[in-house]
Design a protein that fits this description.
Oligomer: single chain
Shape: globular
CATH architecture of the largest domain: Alpha-Beta Complex
Largest sheet: 9 strands, mixed
Radius of gyration: 23 Å
């Protein structure tokens, strides 16, 4: 098949596909960062939110029918999607729909990942897709889902699972699978205590990314069957997938990023340490995740902010930022910023030093402050003379400290009530 014909083949498949992004979880391991927002709504990378990555992957892959399943404290997530993703053309059959738990069945709240999809079967049937792509809304990566759908069709599979290799110890947090020579899945264990390593290796396991492709009618049948099973937890990993392995063709699709790297960049930023580290990785000269990629852009909503500004050039009062990412609307006024990520509309005042920090939007840091290895949540107003990140014992009395020593600071910890939507 020629490249042009192959591209056309994939474009037809993506046109007949609908993506569902599971974005209803809190993400409790992010501690107070998710007190007022769902994990997919957490800001990431200077100007984005986590949800923007799977959404951008859909659009860039040619999937222009997307549903977002929301539940936990979803207001900021829904507002972000409405503001930033309203460019889809409804008259062409394109959409990004928000699908909150709305008592479409007797269950009420979504009880599991499979139940979240089951409760919207009537909506899915109305849209009439041939293939349904189910995605987690809380991971950072770039992936062409069209290649996975094409592989699904070529393998004549009932279900395809995106997978990647992970260190054996980390595999406890994933669904772990075993495959035969044709990549057909022969065993699947959700978050096993003792994961099975890959053949010939004792240090890595093959893990599910939470990315699934289903034939639509097959998915409906399995969801109805699961809903009628009394003891089911209504979860894809715990219930649906294990029930399919022996009876149907379930295949694994190894993840490659859009540059063709295998393994490609993929991050679960589900802990404070992982969130801090993944943000600071972006500062590198050639980071694994390229945000300056015109071929695979990450789309988002962004307020119309003025350019970042650096003011004062006195010896003891110079506005500088080195090895850092600084977003629009920021003012570095006679302060020093080193190896940090500053989101939109951040003010840093004179004689202050910020180092190894992730500063979310709408933050103001007063004069004569020292902040090191800190994550500042949206809307924090740091008082003049504040020192954070140098004395773990003192910090622990006021703030949240991660296992690797990252200090999380929220407005509430500073005795403030943030007045904006998180």
């Amino acid at each position: 098949m020629s490249d042009n014909n192959n591209t056309r083949f994939v474009s037809r498949l993506t046109r007949d596909s609908l993506a569902l992004i599971l974005a209803g979880g809190r993400g409790s391991r992010l501690k107070q960062l998710t007190d007022w927002r769902a994990k997919p709504a957490v800001p990431f990378g200077g100007k984005f939110r986590i949800i923007d990555f799977p959404l951008s992957n859909c659009i860039n892959s040619g999937i222009r029918r997307v549903g977002i399943l929301t539940q936990y404290k979803a207001h900021s997530l829904m507002r972000h999607v409405q503001q930033g993703w309203g460019f889809m053309r409804g008259e062409l059959g394109e959409f990004v729909e928000l699908l909150p738990a709305s008592q479409r069945t007797e269950q009420g709240w979504y009880t599991g990942t499979a139940d979240a999809v089951y409760q919207n079967i009537d909506i899915l049937r109305n849209h009439g897709p041939k293939y349904i792509v189910i995605l987690a809304g809380d991971h950072i990566y770039k992936m062409d889902y069209g290649e996975m759908i094409a592989n699904h069709v070529e393998k004549n599979a009932d279900m395809t699972i995106g997978c990647l290799s992970v260190p054996l110890e980390e595999a406890k947090a994933f669904g772990v699978m075993s495959v035969d020579v044709d990549r057909r899945i022969v065993a699947f264990d959700e978050k096993p205590e003792n994961p099975n390593p890959m053949p010939g290796r004792d240090d890595i396991a093959l893990a599910s990314m939470g990315i699934y492709v289903f034939n639509a009618e097959f998915l409906y049948e399995q969801l109805i069957k699961d809903a009628d099973t009394p003891d089911s937890t209504n979860d894809f990993g715990h219930d649906i997938i294990p029930s399919l392995i022996d009876k149907y063709k379930v295949v694994a699709f190894p993840y490659k990023d859009v540059q063709g790297n295998d393994p490609g960049y993929w991050r679960d930023v589900g802990t404070i340490d992982a969130f801090w580290s993944a943000n600071l990785e972006l500062i590198g000269v050639t980071p694994e995740l390229n945000l300056y990629d015109d071929d695979w852009p990450i789309w988002t909503y962004q307020a119309q902010q003025p350019p970042a500004k650096f003011v004062f050039d006195d010896e003891e009062r110079r506005g500088t930022a080195v090895d850092s990412m600084v977003s629009g609307g920021c003012i570095i006024s006679g302060a020093t910023v080193r190896h940090s990520v500053l989101f939109s509309n951040v003010e840093v005042h004179s004689y202050t030093t910020i180092e190894d920090c992730v500063v979310l939007p709408d933050v103001s840091v007063g004069r004569n402050c020292v902040l090191k290895k800190v994550v500042l949540d949206k809307g924090c107003v740091v008082p003049e003379g504040t020192v954070i990140g140098l004395d773990p014992v003192a910090d622990a009395e006021k703030y949240e400290i991660s296992p690797e020593g990252v200090v999380l600071v929220t407005p509430e910890m500073l005795g403030q009530n943030y007045r904006y939507v998180r």
